[in-house]
Amino acid sequence: MKHLITNIVIITSSLTVLPNIALSTELFTYDINRSQPCTRDCVGNINVTGTVTVNALGSLETENVVNWNLVFNSTNFSDTVINPDNSFFHLTNSASVEANDTELNFIGASGSLLVFSDTVPAPFGVVWQFSSSVSNPSLRESFLNAPRLFSSEPSDRADGNIPELTPITVGTRIAKAVPEPSSIIGLGLLATFGIRTKFKSKKK
After folding, report:
1. What would the pLDDT profile of 162-192 be if each residue is shown by its tens digit?
2. Which of 91, 96, 111, 197 has the most CB atoms at less than 10 Å from its CB?
3. Using omega within 30 degrees of 0 as the cis cutoff, is the peptide bond preceding 123 cis?
4. Distances from the Cα of 107 to the Cα of 33, 87, 131, angstroms
5. How far is 77 from 43, CA to CA, in rounded Å?
6. DSSP secondary structure of the chain
7. Could you tell me whether strands 65-73 and 80-82 are parallel, antiparallel, or unpaired per DSSP bridges?
């Protein structure tokens, strides 16, 4: 009977504790694929692709955006990358980020700024931002792709206006692989087998 009780306790704890650990440390990553028409020093579009990761769902603040890897491509510069090692993310004046199970949304407000920007000294400049002036209640999405060493080099820029201050879906969530129930049960059985073997060896 002692063996049976030990086995039930170990299996039950394996089924309940493991998922709780995963939930407490879960991050949410979204695919980014944005494009705006060139307005300076380039032709066609500036394209920004990559990922943004947040640590919670709902209405988020600056500190909830914990990781990003964004790649800029335009006429004069290819595969320019910004991430937390060489850039920062910031929200001002009621701008916000909303994350849910499927989408990442940026929400502007009058006079607000939502920006990913490099921290490299000028003339280097790489920026993705949404901005809105107090006098013009619309949102402008802007890209700057100018990883320059000299100010005489091109400074690729793109701008696009969004007529209203409505939520802008900028990313779709990357599905996270969930362990199958059979694998979790398997872990429980392995733990049970180890306890049982140890118990028997002590008894001998």
Report:
1. 877 788 999 999 987 655 655 455 555 445 4
2. 91
3. yes
4. 17, 21, 10
5. 12
6. -HHHHHHHHHHHHHHHHHHHHHHHT--EEEEEEEEEEEEES-SSEEEEEEEEEESSSEEE-GGGEEEEEEEEE-SS---EEE-TTTEEEEEETT-EEEE-SSEEEEE--TT-EEEEEE-SPTT-EEEEEEE--SSS-SEEEEEEEE--SSTTS--EEEEEEESS---EEEEEEPPPP---HHHHHHHHHHHHHHHHHHHHHHH-
7. antiparallel
- Tell me if residue 153 falls in helix, strand or coil: coil
pLDDT, tens digit, 9 for 90 and up, residues 56-90: 999 999 999 999 999 999 999 999 999 999 999 99
Rg (CA), the chain: 25
Tokens encoding 33:
């694929």
- Residue whose C-alpha is closest to residue 126's, from 63, 74, 54: 74
Nearest-angstrom CA–CA distance, 137 and 150: 36
Secondary structure letter of residue 10 according to DSSP: H
